[in-house]
Amino acid sequence: MSRTNDSQDVAISLTPKAFETLLYFVENPQRLLTKNELIAKLWPDSFVEESNLAQNVSALRRALGESPSETQFIETVPKLGYRFVADVREIRQEAKAPAFAVANGVIANSANEFTFTETDLNEIPATHARAVTPEAVGVAPPAGSRTRWYAFAALCGVLLIGALYFFTRGGSSLLPNRQLRLAVLPLVNQKPDPNTDYLGFTLADAVITKLNYVTSLVVRPSAYVERYRQQRPDPQQVAQELSVNRLLTGTYLKEGDQLNLNLQLINLDNNQALWTESLTLPADKLITLQERVSQEIVARMALRLSDTERAELKSDLPQNPLAYEFHLRGVDLYVRDELATAQKMLEKAVELDPQYATSWAYLCATYSTLASLYFGGEAMNRQAQHSFDRALALAPHHIEAKTYKSMSLTETNRVEEAVPLLRDVLQTNPNLAQAHWQMAYLLRFAGRLKESIASAERSRQIDDEIRSNNAIFASLLYDGQYERYLKQLPSKETAYILFYRGFGHYYQKDYAEAVKLFDRAYEMVPALMQAQVGKALSFSVSGNKEAGLALLQQTAQQIETRGVTDAEGVYKVAQAFAVLGDKTTALKLWRRSVEGGFFCYPYFANDPLLANLRDAAEYAEVLALARQRHEAFGKKFF
Q: HEC states along 111-127?
């Protein structure tokens, strides 16, 4: 594509999204297009921030040669949106049967015009260089305005041909591919053995991690396919349960130093195999499997990748076979919540292969979880930060590392730093359910509950199976939507989820059900901070406040001595102290929570569990601290 005026003819390179933006501007000249309208039009199936739109418009302005101080083409209407101010000239001509198959086209105003040259158009693959008719663009011509219609259709036709050109010249894949949804199931061990069972899930996870960079493909996260360990489910059952239309399954058998694999990629729309292969890999060649399988999936599904996507598929590959074994074992243990042993395995992996960013990413996730839920404190957070930094130094675009780092930043009083990191992840791939969910998590820390709920709902639209993981839709609880919150909880019965289910019933004043759930959670994992809070509330309901306060004092002592930084978790302890009547400790911990980065002001202002504190002088002071940071966050990012 080129832009011409009276004195020059300059080639313009536009990204597909910038091209879509230009098309919509040209279709709506001189009209104020609000930010919400543009976001809905340009990202109809994604939840994106306003910053994505601003960056996109800025890139378009640069491509058009418009400086920040000019309003030659695009006018910014402060706090509202944008207006395309250049005059768009309609080309009036007699209607001709199907117009503009391969022809030069012009979008022009009196001083500037945008032209697709015949050279450009000749480079469009023949399968895309077909005629564009009114029916093809899906709009009927208005009565009495056929000449005007064909002029507009000609414009749209040239734009559409140009769009195809840019998409096929290394841009993102074409729209039909974006509807592809893939599940990679854990491989089935043909000879179950505790020594080799770890390979089934972790080899699938390695392939999923690679494919997360392909924006035209929605890949079910590893946590959602874990339920199929050592199972051979009916493919159509998986299609229904995970809402996918492509499936990778397989088996493996470890014999001596060799691994025998049988893999099959299935099109669930017609139950036809797209790819079937049997492989025998020596132990030292297992490190090549994730790249090989990922490339096969891309080829067999005919996915068109950008240059960036191709590069990411070939980057960050393991180099040391023994380190990779420790890595796979560590990932398996991490998913099973055996965190202490997972930590040891992953530390050994990075010791043997310090250049493999994915091992560092999982190690930082392990440290962060230990710090957040199991009183790991500042020491674990420092180790997590070091691991994040190492992972991103090795692979600056590493999706898992950025996502895990955003979680750690949120839980260590740096939520403002986490926002741009996650926005960058979502710009890389807006179809990552877990990234949207993580955005919901950090937004609830900042008290942006409506936006948090919207982000979580977007995550569920992409992948409703997120509810099967430890994904707590806490923003609904904080927003007072108790019934909806309970309905949205995951079905798993971990101690963590049992506590949060009991917490919902407690807010509904269904104390009998809450006590049952709190007690079960504590019996399962008494070391879990949330389980200790639940048990203390259970003691309170039964009239044994002394036992509840004694347990909470132990919890508070651990928070103090170990330097626990999970501010949301600390707030839960403060709530329990408030309910049990220890105002001094409750206010102290609440302040610590707010100053530590959990400043969910709307929740605090209406939280019935703080009722015993509202007559204390310090209550208004702490609430004001939360409000100040909450409002500053809103001004910075919204």
A: CCEEEECHHHHHCCCCC
